[in-house]
Amino acid sequence: MKKFLIIAAMLLAGATASFAQLHVGAGYYGELMTTRWNEGNLKHKTSGDMHGFYAGASYNIAVSEIGIGLAPGVYFNFAGEIDKDRYTDTFTRRLSLEVPVHVTYSHDLGPGAIFGYAGPAFNVGLSFKSTGKYYDEISEEWEKATANLYKPVDGVKSQMHRFDCKFGLGVGYKWEHLAANFGWDFGLLNQIRGEYRDKNVKNSIHIHSWHFGVAYVF
């Protein structure tokens, strides 16, 4: 009986490996930060976007014979923006690490297969800095400025959270060892720390993202 269980376990491990695919990919990455607050009966909303790249890998494990799978992964994201005008010249960038756990579905189409995914992604902000200079009209000189939205100032906690939970949706196409995909991730958590939230104006900041890129499938 013991020998039979060992053989069965080996066969199961082999079957799982044969239906598992490692995706190593990179591509364009964009972020959209939306800020909302109320002023009396008026609701305000502003937004700003940054652009960059992503790189990482996921491991798609088939869990059924009808094309359903589970794909955990790890990705590094970089998004930045240059803001330059008559009075400012700054470079803002955000670096983050993202761990998606997506449910996938694939279906044969043409020479390859079309696939889609949905599920949560856990994002950890590594750095959120803005550096540059601004023109001081009083001194009539350019002054240097640096801000780190994740760093405490004078012992006071930063206003922004590092951790976020997202819900992602995406589609793609795989042909032999190459895959192309496009996806959107919705930031679910308010990034303003609780002690900085104002119940009267109901202020909130959410960070959404989108990407498109290619991957090599092993």
What's the layout of helices and strands?
Blueprint: H1 2-18, E1 20-39, E2 42-62, E3 68-84, E4 88-109, E5 112-136, E6 141-148, E7 163-175, E8 178-187, E9 204-217
Antiparallel strand pairs: 1-2, 1-9, 2-3, 3-4, 4-5, 5-6, 5-7, 7-8, 8-9
Please provide a written account of the structure.
By secondary structure, the protein is mainly beta. Helix content is 8%, strand content 69%. The protein is built from 1 helix and 9 strands; from the N terminus they run H-E-E-E-E-E-E-E-E-E. An 8-stranded antiparallel barrel has the order 1-2-3-4-5-7-8-9. The longest helix is centred in the N-terminal third of the chain and has 17 residues, at 2-18. The protein is elongated.
For the largest beta-sheet, the strand count, sense and barrel status come to: 8 strands, antiparallel, barrel
Low-confidence stretches: 4-18
Name the shape in a single word: elongated
Gyration radius (Cα, Å) is: 22 Å
Q: How helical, in percent, are the residues?
A: under 10%
Mean pLDDT: 88
In DSSP terms, counting alpha (H) and pi (I) runs of 4 or more, how many helices? 1
Structural class: mainly beta
Strand order of the largest sheet: 1-2-3-4-5-7-8-9
Task: Count the beta strands.
Answer: 9
Spell the H/E element sequence.
HEEEEEEEEE
What percent strand?
over 45%
Distance between the termini: 36 Å
